[in-house]
From TrEMBL:
Annotated ranges, domain Glycoside hydrolase family 38 central: 277-355
Signal peptide range: none
TM region(s), chain numbering: none
Organism, scientific name: Coprobacillus cateniformis
Protein name, as recorded: Alpha-mannosidase/fructosidase
InterPro entries: Gal_mutarotase_sf_dom (IPR011013), Glyco_hydro/deAcase_b/a-brl (IPR011330), Glyco_hydro_38_C (IPR011682), Glyco_hydro_38_cen (IPR015341), Glyco_hydro_38_cen_sf (IPR037094), Glyco_hydro_38_N (IPR000602), Glyco_hydro_38_N_sf (IPR027291), Glyco_hydro_57/38_cen_sf (IPR028995)
Pfam families: Alpha-mann_mid, Glyco_hydro_38C, Glyco_hydro_38N
Amino acid sequence: MSRIHFIPHVHWDREWLRSTDSSRIKLVYFFDRLIDMLENDPKMYYFTFDGQTAALEDYLAIQPFQKETIKKLVKERRLFIGPWYVQPDMIIPSGEALVRNLLIGSQYASSLGHCMNVGWVPDAFGQNKITPYLFKELGMKGIYAWRGFDYEVLKDSLFMWKGNGNVKLPTVHFALGYGHYRGFPEEYENVKADMQDFIPKLEARFQDQEVLFMLGSDYAFPRKHSSLMIEKLKQEGYDCQMNNPEDYLETLLSAAKHNHHVLEEYQGEARSATLGRIHAGITSTRIDIKNAMRYYETLMAKVVEPMIAISRFQGGHCHQELVNYFWKIIFKNQFHDSIYSSSPESINQTVENRLLNLRHGLNELIWMNFRYLAESANLSSVQKDEDILVLFNTLPYQRQDYAFVSMIVKHKDFVLKRQDGTIVPYQMMNEVIATCHDIEYYNGMENFHDSGEVLEGTKYKIQIKIDASILPAMGYEILKVCFHQQNSQEMIGDVQILENGAENQYLKMFIQKDGTISVENKKTKEVYHHLNAFVEKGDDGDEYNYSPCGNDKEISIYHNQPTITCIESSDIEVKYRIEYNAKVPAKVVNHERVQELEALKIISDVSLKARSQTIDFTTTIENHSCDHIVRVTFDDLYQSEENCSQDQFGTIIRKNIIENQKSLEDGATEYVLPMYAMQRFVQLHHQKSIMALISKGPLEYEIENNQKICLTLLRSVGKFGKADLLIRPGRASGYRMDAPSSQLLNKNITSEYSLFFGIQADMSKMIQDAEMLNTPVQTRYLNDISRQKNQGLDWQYSAISLDTRVELMALKKAEHGQYSVIRIVNNRDNDVENVRFHVPLTKKCYLSDVQEKKKIELENKNGEIIIKNIMSNTFVTVIIE
């Protein structure tokens, strides 16, 4: 007979059906009952709280007097918490966001006595291939997961999951789901009947006869008679016990070793819907929220924290707890149901409110560094009729792009000068881009005292571009703004305007009459056609899934004659505006699109810049229809059955068509469409010339006919849950409720993306361009300055420079102490040896783990640090004293 291991647990959706504060009320009563059971029932040995800690913070904010009791139960290993802060989606957030979610969650759990030492992923909609590596780097001993795996691939629920860098972690698959048994009935005869039903199904999945029985589910209150029922089962001859994830994993591994059971090895991501739905459409629901979240997670890791690090190297200070406060806001929006936007209206509104908090907070953290520099730099040489312009480059290498500067000035005539008097050329822009009018924004980008004078006509809003290659790596430069002087040195670029087109040294671009783009890769003489083509079709799905409509036909928006206008023309940039006014069906009724039409307006700005191998697009969709999807498509010259996209720690190769998936007729829970998520880029996987799509926001793509890259720019649906979809028959996911905000009606949805063209040897350049596009130079014009020596800081400073073969994941203050931490990722498919980076001479550096514990001191040769090897698709963490 098998031995049954009951793990009492709960999966706590911090927000899903109810808002966080509505759930918090239930949470308080939940924990009150749980604490009472653990303290007063000597046979209630263990309880597992969902592998996350944010909800524990929610509880202790109401019941702070229970903290010591919680700490006692955690320390005694009776209440298991961590390692996450929240249970995130595993595919949408960035790699650094996932790392920090685990770091902050595990350290909070440890501060309460103990962090559960296994990864816990019960309800993410599919599994990422990086998961074993991520948990291993944190020091986890194994993983528990559910969705995405199936019986056809895994013959046993215990297996070895191989991840990046040849890391392998033992993994337990929840055979019948994490919540297959909500709790024991109060009548023992019903308990016995349940055992007779469930145990044979579970025994088929655990060949070493150590069966996992999950005792709990979503929001499931702990049953006070749980321990009594287990004791009764023992008395009836069942070999059973209450257990926890740590001890059960050890038992399972010991049994496998004893039985000479060689564990199966699984490698890669898991997207099967055989056993549980993975809801592929969640990567494009509420794309306005997803675009914003991509922006803020990038801003935090690539701009805010590096700027703070630069200031700290120069004597500044910032509490890491303050930074972590805003990371936690990011994590709360990356809670799986929240970032999916598969929620009722109130939850999506809550997520939007947190976006406002992030906008205010992160802008203020950025401004804090400009203010520190203005108060600390030696500005004694700045005259009364001169102001300063400060530019921060938060990438660890010299840039090859342009810095955008928006200023409100008293005179239109000025020159920019370095400290030594050298003139810095700039290019005045024809188009003035609208900027946010919140006070928090004017407190940074544009002084809010000056904004009123623009309206009154006494000051002028001007926007310029400066060659960012003048800036030091991971540092800043201060320029003087000298008024009443004519700008006689405009920038010289290599862009030439053509009739409805432009060219530079790398690319030649033409806009066709239908608005699609043709591009010649001048390196290879190859010409690509039908790029940036917009298509639209109906969507009969819900917030979880895109699902096709009956008798629907894709509408080619480019068949509508667009207007094409040149809006920027200089040596450094030529930009065109392409504007479509189309009509599309108004909505879907009874699974088919209606005859009634509504307007669909698409405005796409197309730009070619000097020295650039990218064509850059900013596309705004003005939506007035319901139940449809809008995509932009790009035809490659070459075909491939596979695509290559960036994931959190490198790249992933995927089939364009999902093979060998179980059919709906054979019982699959969903027909999984090949709609995938990327981090920043995707290309067809061939050895020909590169045409890669780089995205600053939208992440959902599909490859059609092994040649066409399709990027989703809008998905408009009006139901939280919906039954009987074509690709997902039967019950609704979620609840059958209206979610009108997810239609994105009468909204302007703006997305930014680029096309990179090159040869295969340009792969590193493409990755670097993707990083520059996603991490713009931060600039501020400052006129309220002391014009004194202050603390005497230099006008130019570089904190760190990094080998361009690898990429910076993070530069931050250590969680404890005054050290700095740099995290470096090798997102290539080959190892990189002798990785070099430069730090100030006096700094000692150590390889460390993610928990920021020193391991090996690195040799420092006059400020040059060498890391001997970084394996492909992995990262390293370094402490800088």
